[in-house]
């Protein structure tokens, strides 16, 4: 975590127009970010919040809607650039339907291929990059934004899981600011604002997902539909399955380890089914601070964009007059073995994060396609992790190689062709 208050950042924050690039704009975090930008243009008249560019992978129509929406609040001289990471999708749809119909307005505003996301993240016109692509696919563009000294609002936790030390090194050599969007990490970040001493414990809260009270046997029989039915959060399918296995919390343990620079044994997980307390920090004097708000990602997204300013937000506020039961329960590592993997990987670092992440992404995809059982996801990840040749200080290239290896290995262990 390195929010910097160098002069260049103060100047950039004071600029009358804030250019925001949203990578993964068509997803759950991406669309919530567009809502936040619309709101900021109403509540922060001193600055114009401009959707400079937005990326999609498969949902072309959704991206075109987002562009049309942005055109309603930002001037014609600041059109929203469209980025398509999947070349084939973009070619077949966009060129024929939109840019050719309206070549003047959109000429030059469409870029295709994964490298176009990296180039956009490096553009000197961009102030803030919202990293909201799901999975390891978000790694290169997030690293490019950090190298280029941007403010990075990080939703893509997989970047830190795969390459935490690489990110840290790049942050040390760049004026970039990395601000958390994950509600738990945003909560911790908010609680740490006035503290000069390192905290004693970070307590990540977890909703417990749809299977919080289920037995292992019941989880073994979980269907795609039951695993996708999250009780408190509406999110994309991958993170929703990660929440059901609690692999999401495992990834967040690793994310917290790199964001806040504390060892794994200073991180705890507590189950909090209401998702109001987003996380807590225990300080050296034993005092515990928490951040509370109803589950809505617009608040942490907005805080990452406007930090250190706090501006009115569209997200609902915590209704203190209501009869709330704010329960906190110990996390059950036996029923949710993903948590143990998270602590283990946060402890050893090295190649373990890249292997766990890739095995999990592959396994979640296979579960969603109906090819493996729910409990195979974490069992398979544990198996792949145990069988990899651990290296303590891998370069980025090695991590990317291992990503491919772990995906193949997971399929092999599930008796599926590569
Ligand atoms: N949703 C939440 O509440 C939440 C909370 C905290 C953290 N996060 C994190 O935020 C990230 C995004 O989550 P989400 O729930 O918003 O996911 P999502 O709804 O599935 O959206 C994913 C986004 O990534 C794009 N994408 C998918 N595959 C891609 C690829 N190979 N290359 C480039 N772009 C690709 C998608 O494009 P198309 O839609 O066009 O295919 C979409 O814009 C994840 O890392 C997640 O862990 C999410």
Architecture overview:
The protein has 418 residues and is of the alpha/beta class. The protein has 2 domains: 7-181, NAD(P)-binding Rossmann-like Domain (Rossmann fold, 3-Layer(aba) Sandwich); 186-295 and 324-413, RNA polymerase sigma factor, region 2, helix turn helix motif (Rna Polymerase Sigma Factor, Chain: A), CATH 1.10.1740. Helices cover 47% and strands 14% of the residues. The chain is built from 18 helices and 12 strands. It has helices at 7-14, 28-43, 60-73, 87-99, 103-106, 114-122, 139-147, 158-172, 183-191, 216-220, 224-228, 237-245, 247-260, 298-306, 338-348, 352-368, 374-386, 396-413; strands at 17-23, 48-56, 81-84, 110-112, 128-131, 151-154, 177-180, 201-206, 267-271, 277-282, 288-292, 329-330. Strands 4-3-2-1-5-6-7 form a 7-stranded parallel β-sheet, sandwiched between helices. β6 (151-154), α8 (158-172) and β7 (177-180) form a beta-alpha-beta unit. α13 (247-260) packs parallel to α15, α16 (352-368) runs antiparallel to α17 and α16 packs across α18. The model is unreliable at 102-108 (pLDDT under 50). Bound molecules: NADP nicotinamide-adenine-dinucleotide phosphate. NADP nicotinamide-adenine-dinucleotide phosphate binds next to α2 and α12.
Number of helices: 18
pLDDT < 50 stretches: 102-108
| CATH homology superfamily of the largest domain | RNA polymerase sigma factor, region 2, helix turn helix motif
Range of helix content: 40-55%
Small-molecule components bound: NADP nicotinamide-adenine-dinucleotide phosphate
Instruction: Write the H/E string, N to C.
Output: HEHEHEHHEHEHEHEHEHHHHEEEHEHHHH
Describe the largest sheet.
7 strands, parallel
- Number of beta-strand segments: 12
Structural class: alpha/beta
CATH class membership of the largest domain = Mainly Alpha
Strand order within the widest beta sheet: 4-3-2-1-5-6-7
User: What's the alpha carbon Rg, rounded to whole Å?
Assistant: 21 Å
Strand content: 5-15%
What is the fold-level CATH name, i.e. the topology of the largest domain? Rna Polymerase Sigma Factor, Chain: A
């Amino acid at each position: 975590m390195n929010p910097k208050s160098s002069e260049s950042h103060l100047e950039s924050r004071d600029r009358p127009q804030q250019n925001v690039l949203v990578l993964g704009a068509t997803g759950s975090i991406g669309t919530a970010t567009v809502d936040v930008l619309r709101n900021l243009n109403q509540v922060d008249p001193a600055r114009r919040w401009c959707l400079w560019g937005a990326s999609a992978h498969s949902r072309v129509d959704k991206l075109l809607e987002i562009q049309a929406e942005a055109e309603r609040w930002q001037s014609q001289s600041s059109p929203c650039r469209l980025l398509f990471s999947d070349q084939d999708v973009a070619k077949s749809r966009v060129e024929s339907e939109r840019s050719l119909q309206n070549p003047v307005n959109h000429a030059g505003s469409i870029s295709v291929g994964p490298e176009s996301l990296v180039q956009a993240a490096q553009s000197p016109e961009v102030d803030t990059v919202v990293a909201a692509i799901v999975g390891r696919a978000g790694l290169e563009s997030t690293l490019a934004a950090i190298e280029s000294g941007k403010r990075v609002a990080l939703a893509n936790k997989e970047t830190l899981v795969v390459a935490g030390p690489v990110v840290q090194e790049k942050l040390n050599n760049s004026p970039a600011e990395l601000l958390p969007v994950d509600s738990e990490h945003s909560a911790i970040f908010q609680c740490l604002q006035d503290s000069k001493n390192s905290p004693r414990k970070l307590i990540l809260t977890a909703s417990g997902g749809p299977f919080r009270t289920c037995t292992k046997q019941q989880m073994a029989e979980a269907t795609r539909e039951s695993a996708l039915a999250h009780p408190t959060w509406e999110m994309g399918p991958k993170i929703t399955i990660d929440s059901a296995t609690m692999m999401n919390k495992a990834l967040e343990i690793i994310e917290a380890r790199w964001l806040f620079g504390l060892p794994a044994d200073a991180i705890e997980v507590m189950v909090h089914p209401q998702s109001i307390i987003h996380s807590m920090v225990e300080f050296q004097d034993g005092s515990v601070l928490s951040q509370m708000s109803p589950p809505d990602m617009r608040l942490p997204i907005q805080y990452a964009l406007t930090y250190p300013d706090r501006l009115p937000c569209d997200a609902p506020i915590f209704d203190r007059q209501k009869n709330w039961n704010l329960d906190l329960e110990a996390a059950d590592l036996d029923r949710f073995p993903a948590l143990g993997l998270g602590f283990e990987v946060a402890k050893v670092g090295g190649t373990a994060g890249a292997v766990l992440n890739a095995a999990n992404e592959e396994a979640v995809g296979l579960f969603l396609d109906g090819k493996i059982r729910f409990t195979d996801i974490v069992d398979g990840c544990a198996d792949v992790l145990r069988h990899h040749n651990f290296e303590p200080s891998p370069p980025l290239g090695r991590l990317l190689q291992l990503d491919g290896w772990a995906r193949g290995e997971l399929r092999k262990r599930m008796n599926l062709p590569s």
